[in-house]
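TICKET: design request
STATUS: open
ATTACHED STRUCTURE:
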């Protein structure tokens, strides 16, 4: 009977252990890291918001900049061939895109040496590229700084854990170490997430920008070739 009751007690303990299911939400995970962990997570969250905002703002701006009428250059060449420079400039003003602004700059130099026209277009192109790449460097910075801030939280969490161990009085309790360990783990994950998001966003924006730059170069070369054609 004694052995049977002992088995029943063990089964009861196992049953009770299986019935208890502990869950941890994201909010609880963040708040369990203490004040230092929450501060770092808040900074990482702000960096994530900035990254997402810059990404979508640049994507919409680049998408608008890449819209050029497929018949635009043909109309420009017709106007230039017929000596209708004013009409060509009006057409560029209506398009209002990086390509049209480069062509408009070249139109203002018609009558001067081809080298001067090319220089004017290149200078205008540098300004357009600068506008296209506005705030993109911030994404690159966040992609590098995010994991470093997360690693800073990791170091702070480990320092907290070591401090608690040193003052534990010879007894190690997991609940005493929990705050520091939560800080270490959550900030690491948060920093990596921010870094990955910013890195992917940066590369995608740079890729889209390069396509617009190639488009500008192709149309500028086409315009200069037309001016260089023998009459």
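STATUS: resolved
RESOLUTION: sequence designed for all positions
ATTACHED SEQUENCE:
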């Amino acid at each position: 009977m004694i052995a049977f009751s002992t088995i029943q007690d063990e089964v009861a303990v196992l049953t009770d252990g299986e019935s208890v299911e502990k869950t941890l939400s994201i909010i609880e995970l963040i708040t369990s890291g203490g004040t230092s962990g929450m501060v770092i997570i808040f900074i990482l969250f702000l960096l994530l918001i900035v990254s997402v905002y810059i990404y979508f703002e640049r994507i919409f701006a680049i998408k608008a900049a890449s819209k050029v009428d497929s018949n635009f250059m043909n109309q420009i060449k017709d106007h230039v061939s017929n000596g209708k420079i004013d009409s060509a400039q009006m057409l560029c003003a209506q398009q209002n895109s990086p390509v049209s602004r480069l062509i408009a700059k070249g139109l203002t130099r018609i009558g001067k040496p081809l080298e001067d026209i090319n220089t004017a277009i290149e200078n205008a192109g540098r300004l357009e590229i600068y506008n296209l790449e506005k705030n993109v460097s911030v994404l690159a910075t966040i992609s590098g700084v995010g994991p470093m801030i997360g690693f800073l939280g990791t170091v702070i969490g480990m320092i907290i854990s070591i401090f608690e161990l040193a003052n534990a009085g010879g007894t190690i309790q997991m609940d005493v170490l929990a705050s520091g360990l939560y800080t270490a783990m959550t900030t690491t994950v948060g920093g990596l997430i921010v870094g990955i998001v910013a890195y992917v966003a940066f590369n995608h924006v740079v890729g889209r920008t390069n396509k617009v730059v190639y488009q500008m170069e192709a149309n500028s070369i086409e315009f200069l070739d037309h001016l260089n054609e023998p009459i």
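CLOSING REMARK: The chain is about 85% helix and 0% strand. Residues 31-228 form one domain.
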